[in-house]
Specification:
The protein is an alpha/beta fold. Helices cover about 40% and strands about 15% of the residues. The strands form six sheets. The chain has a four-stranded parallel β-sheet. A four-stranded antiparallel β-sheet has the order 13-14-17-16, with helices on one face. Bound molecules: pyridoxal-5'-phosphate.
Length: about 500
């Protein structure tokens, strides 16, 4: 339970923050939303700072979903009976809601429902017409589910080309990207993939690259999984060919549903490697190749879609719209700015900094996802798993690990190709923790990171509590904070 003294100190700090930061609009309305829809956070004393891991759902989303399910009878959609038609209506309205939310013209974009962003990415990887002399061009700071597409590209003989990010900001060199994108086409299929926002550093890359790439014959995969929870994606203005996302990251519930937004003309160029129930108009067991893929999204949705869960997607999008994506964006940006300034100014008594941030330390072209180490008075790194545990004891949820973003991690922590090679020498798979230990023992480098990320229900109190926790470690040596422990715990998977 929280102390009253703390609460009054917090209220004072928040009032002065709000008056200095117009982006922190209407704190009263935010508190009302927090209490009404996310009351369980404060009732249970949670400080949730892992929105890039997973968003939080509002109470009303659950209520509305339950009411809807209880109000009728829903059967498997692939038929024409009344309960089947009721489910078909749910699926259709979810498709329309997704298109409307992203301002996508239904004549131009199709929505393919998947299990998550990774499912959407796999659909692209396995179906994209990679071929010899073709290219898969991708930035270093992609999530592993985008990196994984390179294995489909390699298997089909296409070149895989990475564009590096650079310290300290972990941005791409815009001139280098331009040079890659403007190389003349040799007539083969080529795909450019980058995240609209890095899930590690929070870096936001220029969306103008989409048009530049199109002008030079590239198809573009814009990974929006970490972008859309706190940024407006306007598909009437920016028109990537493939946009993967996960709905739980946007509004917490339901889990297990994502989407691939895809330009219709590109959908026609994808070649699925198999067919399944639901993806065909017709198949026969009596002739090889006797099947016909269903047109549009249906050809890409294997089996029965989550027709009950999809009604919760429509509800979630309505909730996000009612709170206002621009409002959320402005709020998390000013809160991230406060955090970054506080992190830069916090020092031990000997003047040594307490934080090292990986990625931009200002608010320009970055989102509210912040990766960092905490440092002791001698400049040694506090064990990130201990920080996670100590924060957890104060019911602060932050994330540690590599966040499935090896490129940003390797550059942030200065891990060379030769050092990484050590982890791939054995045919026996090395675990993430094993690799981290190998590198740390061999080089003294700590290939591990803490991440906090803000979202729909974040208040000033959340970031303030985190800084109060961090400050409580001032002047502590790393060895004091480190408790003997053998295993660092399970690796972060998202
Ligand atoms: C940028 C980015 N892309 C893709 C993914 C994969 O999302 P999912 O695990 O929901 O498939 C994530 C997950 O964190 C992400 O942050």
């Amino acid at each position: 339970m929280r102390h009253e003294d703390d609460e009054s100190e917090l209220r004072e700090a928040e009032a002065s923050f709000a008056s200095a930061n117009p982006g922190y609009r209407d704190p009263e309305a935010l508190h009302e939303l927090r209490e009404r829809e996310y009351g369980r956070l404060d009732e249970r004393g949670h400080t949730y700072l892992d929105y890039t891991g997973g968003g939080l759902y509002a109470d009303s989303q659950l209520r509305r979903h339950l009411e809807l399910l209880a109000s009728d009878v829903f059967g498997n959609p692939h038929s024409h009976n009344p309960t089947s038609l009721a489910s078909t209506a749910i699926v259709q309205s979810a498709r329309s809601a997704v298109l409307a939310f992203f301002d996508a013209d239904p004549a131009e974009y199709e929505v393919v429902f998947t299990q998550n962003a990774s499912g959407a990415l796999k659909l692209v990887g396995e179906s994209y017409p990679f071929e010899p002399r073709g290219t898969y061009l991708l930035s270093y700071d992609n999530h592993n589910s985008v990196n994984g597409i390179r294995e489909f590209a390699r298997a089909r003989g296409a070149d895989v080309v990475y564009v590096p990010v650079y310290r300290p900001d972990l941005r791409l060199d815009a001139d280098l990207v331009r040079r890659h994108l403007t190389t003349p086409s040799n007539g083969t299929a080529r795909l450019f993939a980058y995240p609209a926002q890095s899930n590690f550093s929070g870096v936001m890359h220029p969306l103008e690259w989409v048009q530049l790439a199109h002008d030079h014959g590239w198809d573009v995969l814009l990974d929006c999984a970490a972008f859309v929870p706190t940024n407006r994606l306007d598909l009437s203005a920016v028109k990537p060919d493939f946009v993967p996302l996960s709905f739980y990251k946007m509004f917490g519930y339901p889990t297990g549903i994502g989407a691939l937004l895809v330009r219709r003309e590109k959908l026609d160029q994808l070649r699925r490697p198999w067919f399944a129930g639901g993806t065909i108009t017709l198949a026969s067991v009596q002739g090889a190749g006797w099947y016909r893929l269903a047109p549009g999204a249906a050809g890409f949705e294997d089996g029965t879609v989550d027709y009950l869960g999809l009604s919760a997607v429509t509800i979630g999008l309505e909730h996000l719209s009612s709170v206002g994506i621009d409002r959320i964006h402005d709020r998390v940006c000013v809160l991230a700015g406060w955090l970054l300034r506080e992190m830069a100014s916090r020092r031990h008594s000997n003047g040594a900094p307490m934080f090292r941030v990986f990625g931009p330390t200002g608010t320009d072209r970055r989102g509210a996802t912040i990766a960092f180490y905490m440092l002791d008075p001698a400049g040694d790194i506090y064990d990130v798993y201990r920080i996670e545990k100590l924060a957890g004891e104060e019911r602060i949820s932050l994330r540690t690990g590599c966040f499935c973003n090896p490129g940003d991690g390797e550059i942030a922590h200065r891990i060379t190709r030769d050092e990484m090679a050590e982890c791939f020498e054995d045919s026996v798979p090395v675990t993430l923790a094993g690799c981290q230990r190998l590198i740390e023992d061999a080089t003294g480098k700590v290939p591990n990171t803490i991440r906090i990320s803000l979202g729909i229900a974040t208040t000033f109190g959340d970031v303030w509590r985190f800084m109060r926790f961090a400050t409580s470690l001032a002047d502590r040596p790393a060895a004091y904070v480190a408790e003997p422990h053998d295993e660092p715990g399970p690796p972060a998977l998202d």
